[in-house]
Amino acid sequence: MVASMKLIDLVENHAEKIAAQWAKIVVKNPFTPFYHDKPVEKLIPQAVRFYRNFRKLFLEPKPVEASDGYFTRYAEKRYKEGVPLQEAIYALILMRRQIWLYAEFQATFSTAVEKQQAIESVTRTMLMFDYAMYFITKKYRELMKLEWFEAPNT
Amino acid sequence: MSGSLKLVNLIETHAEPIARQWARDVRKNSRTPSYHGIPEDKLVPVGVKFYDNFKQMFFTDKPADTSQQYFARYAEENHARNIPLNEALYALIMMRRHIWLYAEFQTIFISAVEQKQAVDSLVRTILMFDYAIFFISQRYQELIRQSIEEKLGVVNVLRMESPPGTQQGPYKTAIMVALILGAFGLTYYYHAMLSQNIIFTHLLYIPIVLASIWWKKKGIFVAACLGGYLLLSHLLFLKGMPFTDDIIRAAMFLVIGTVVAFLSEGITRAEELYKSAN
Questions:
Q1: Is the minimum CB–CB distance between B2 and chain A shorter than 8 Å?
Q2: Which residue of B has its CA nearest to A93?
Q3: How far is A41 from chain B (nearest CA, A)?
Q4: Which of A81, A151, B173, B256 is deepest in the core (most CB within 10 A)?
Q5: Would you kindly state where each structural domain of chain A is located, as residue ranges?
Q6: What's this model's pTM, rounded to 2 decimal places?
Q7: Residue B169 Cα, gap to closest chain A Cα (Å)
Q8: Residue A116 CA to chain centroid, in angstroms?
Q9: Do B258 and B218 form a contact (C-beta atoms < 8 A)?
Q10: Which CATH entry fits the domain spanning A2-144: 1.10.287, 1.10.490, 3.30.379, 2.40.128?
């Protein structure tokens, strides 16, 4: 856990810069066409919010509950904005990738010990994102109120 | 890339035991309840199939293109089993975790060089799974849309919903006028000619139900008309017979008409929600 502090500090201290890089990517990524005509300035705050919450989500002793609350709200917001589910998820994946790209760019993990820290950070981040995918898809389904038409349990 | 070979080889040679561990886990995980009732023997081949495809998806130059086909099929198979998207995704995430649990168990990444290989393998695996999550979500949305459109198609035949650019309003009115005239004639025939009050009134539910489906609350007017006509006809032609039965029948016309009208409004609202969500 302590090994991951380096990544958390980096994300927190550079939230705006990482968010700005993410916004530039998401407006042109072929998997996120919904975002292509959105002004970069309007997208940055949602990524900044995520990066600012990163420490809390990362260090939470009960990661499931913390992820549930945060990512359910994320799903609600994106749904209201009309973002298709797969794009809302992919935009979040790009936020995660941008952390690592920035960390790599900053050469945060270069020595052998730091490599071990990198593995720990990646594993911990992935755990958080695994829950994120689950809670976002679950919330989207509830919001779409498709149960009226769907076969049971679909 | 070559560093990842160790992981890929491990998966290839141990596909069956990894898949079995995954199957056991997915059958009791609290986030995958839809898998709990599926026998382990039916789940293991799903895991084996994924692990068998792993190498191909891992080493391709175009991971997005290669994985799209496989994960679209994964979505189709899970959708056909009535597994919700969130659970299908989580089951896949568990497949990935089991690779790592098994790899960790086999302690294949020990030295410093191997640690570097571990990072490479992690990054590559995660990239593949990022695409997987996108393609599965996308395919699920398409499949849900298809099944809703099919179901709406059946409902819309009864609702005589107009395809864009056509007008079916006049047909509905003509059919309704014919049905109401038929109902009036039938009532007259039984009351005035046969002096009977038998169960012919069941046939009057046809225009009542159709009117409520087509025009919702406005359609209740047809139920009121037919109920009123039934009572009037009784007063005129069946003077000596008890009035209670027809009062109950007329009241039931209104009840059924109202219930169907509200159901029809509910379907329309749900359809609008679905269309706005797409």
A1: no
A2: B130
A3: 25
A4: B256
A5: 2-144
A6: 0.72
A7: 26
A8: 23
A9: no
A10: 1.10.490
